[in-house]
């Protein structure tokens, strides 16, 4: 299968792969079609003015061979010759990268497109199951994950390979359902008067939810950092943090179930990113799965769909590496997302 703008996709090695999120950028170099990815380089986006500076400092200054191709997954919709990250001030300009970094070829993918590629490439030994039955071979899958934002992507098997379906599903509307939801939602900080999935189901969303729960009870929040909130919630040392995790996992279950219904994802739902990995005990507590399955009239279908937490620490890079080595195995459309000299 192909996904190119001019026939079968092929890349010139070495290939620089990169997963660029709102907080961290992760890079690695693949020397050839049969090579594994080299040692990952991880930097904070806040430490650099832009992606070019980060690549020079983290990769090029110490690389024995200059990469010819860059395949970068970015947390933003890819439109035009300037791509602005959604949760980071970086602006990616592929034409300037070609001119200033000595590259022949630049390909931009959505960050959760790379996570979808990882789900297709990784084995089940990197997955931790959160209920449901067994995945149906070659059935549709979905990937979502709370991180700096909320990423969502689909994965469809067609024409002999896997086709990732990127999108901006993290910005869907998210509304209250229970009486407690209504009490808490009244205190959430909103964007233009609405609550999106990303206003709750991400790092800053955890803090937003924690503050809202505290204020719904007439108090003030004691914690501010998402990592402190999740740690206190898992330890049971802060009642507000405990409820924050309960509501967070319930809402994540609702959204995951909605996306699974859209794709009829009998191949499974895959939760990626650091937050999901850190809160596995909360996800297994029961309310996530109950919310996921509560989709009448399709409860039976939902009970059969497995959910897995992706445990690989650099899943997106693993997905990009698989694509770089064997692009013909994936239906990735490169038209409008590939720049060459």
TrEMBL record:
<keyword id="KW-0418">Kinase</keyword>
<dbReference type="InterPro" id="IPR043129">
    <property type="entry name" value="ATPase_NBD"/>
</dbReference>
<dbReference type="GO" id="GO:0004340">
    <property type="term" value="F:glucokinase activity"/>
</dbReference>
<keyword id="KW-0963">Cytoplasm</keyword>
<comment type="similarity">
    <text>Belongs to the bacterial glucokinase family.</text>
</comment>
<feature type="binding site">
    <location>
        <begin position="18"/>
        <end position="23"/>
    </location>
    <ligand>
        <name>ATP</name>
    </ligand>
</feature>
<keyword id="KW-0067">ATP-binding</keyword>
<dbReference type="Pfam" id="PF02685">
    <property type="entry name" value="Glucokinase"/>
</dbReference>
<dbReference type="InterPro" id="IPR003836">
    <property type="entry name" value="Glucokinase"/>
</dbReference>
<dbReference type="InterPro" id="IPR050201">
    <property type="entry name" value="Bacterial_glucokinase"/>
</dbReference>
<protein>
    <recommendedName>
        <fullName>Glucokinase</fullName>
        <ecNumber>2.7.1.2</ecNumber>
    </recommendedName>
</protein>
<keyword id="KW-0547">Nucleotide-binding</keyword>
<keyword id="KW-0324">Glycolysis</keyword>
<keyword id="KW-0808">Transferase</keyword>
